[in-house]
Amino acid sequence: MKFGPLPVTQATGAILAHSITLGDGRLRKGAMLGEDEIARLLNDGVTQIIAARPDADDVLENDAAADLARALVPAPDAAGLRITNAFTGRVNLIAEAPGVAVIDAAAIRRFNSVNPMITVATVPEYQQLARGNMVATVKIISYAVPRADVETAANAARSAIRLATAAYTSASLVVTTIPGGPDDAKGIRAIGDRLTALGLDLAEVITVPHKGADLTRAVTDAPGDMILILTGSATSDPNDIAPGAVRAAGGTVTRFGMPVDPGNLLFLGQIGARPVIGLPGCARAPALNGADWVLSRVACGIDVSPDDIAGMGVGGLLKEIPTRPQPRSGRKS
């Protein structure tokens, strides 16, 4: 593509780079100049413009953006995404349901390394999304780009973006109580809202004393496809009452603790085919915490390994809680 000053008399087929106000109206940037546009410019005394002239092997911005979006998401329905129409070189990818963004980060890096004029921006990996949220935007910065570069970028990131949606229908919440314990109603409401946002039902809330035998029976009998545990007293060790109850019910605990604050005291396990998440106390509030990152992935059928949780430490320092008894800053309050 050639870009720069161009005599109006030689501009047929070029793309106007800057809007021009004429006596009979306005020619907007990005307009393809045909005979009518050239006549309007000449009639108004305009003899030179700044324009882009695509080469024979170039792809216009809208066509390039549309082709690349289809490469990133070849089967939109299967990927849970909607591809918008191209406009000014941009195509957006929109979530069609609640879920979690699954992105091949290495492929996106390859895509964005082909030509600086060819770009795609995405939400972070595993970002939780609602229906209608934007997952990614493809943007062609210039008015046209070489066809060879479009093909290279397409091949570098084919099928690189999808939406993982709920893999389970329901979850049971088991709440343990202690005398003078926290507000269970508030916590239950916050956790129910989290499940609803992911497309799951709260199958049942089971309240039991904070004792191993009671909790073991509760997790064994819980009807949901997933089991969430919210303890009245913080779980502070892998052998504490809640992880112990999961093992006593025939399950396993695959990870205790996570490098995300707030959210350190989460544990993850399994009873049969059902995932179990021991929620940290901060899950009683609606504010983002480490449990949200794990819950959203597990609910959408994404395996969360101990290594995955270890990797959450980068970016895991979340917003400070004003009511924290010991603020991280160390200041007295």
Which short descriptors sum up this protein?
10 helices, 28% helix, 20 strands, 29% strand, Molybdenum Cofactor Biosythetic Enzyme, Chain A, 333 residues, Aldehyde Oxidoreductase, domain 3, 2 domains, alpha+beta, six-stranded mixed beta sheet
Structure description:
The structure is a single chain. With 333 residues, the protein is an alpha+beta fold. The protein folds into two domains: 58-164, Pyrimidine nucleoside phosphorylase-like, C-terminal domain (Aldehyde Oxidoreductase, domain 3, Alpha-Beta Complex), CATH 3.90.1170; 170-311, MoaB/Mog-like domain (Molybdenum Cofactor Biosythetic Enzyme, Chain A). The protein contains ten helices and 20 strands. The protein has helices at residues 35-43, 61-72, 76-79, 105-112, 147-156, 184-198, 212-221, 241-248, 290-299, 306-311, and strands at residues 2-7, 15-16, 20-22, 25-27, 48-53, 58-60, 81-83, 90-95, 99-103, 118-122, 128-129, 134-140, 144-146, 161-164, 170-177, 201-209, 226-230, 252-256, 267-271, 274-279. It has a six-stranded mixed sheet, with helices on both faces. The chain has a four-stranded antiparallel sheet with strand order 7-8-12-10. α4 (105-112) packs antiparallel against α5. The longest helix has 15 residues, at 184-198. The chain is elongated. The model has no long low-confidence stretch (mean pLDDT 95).
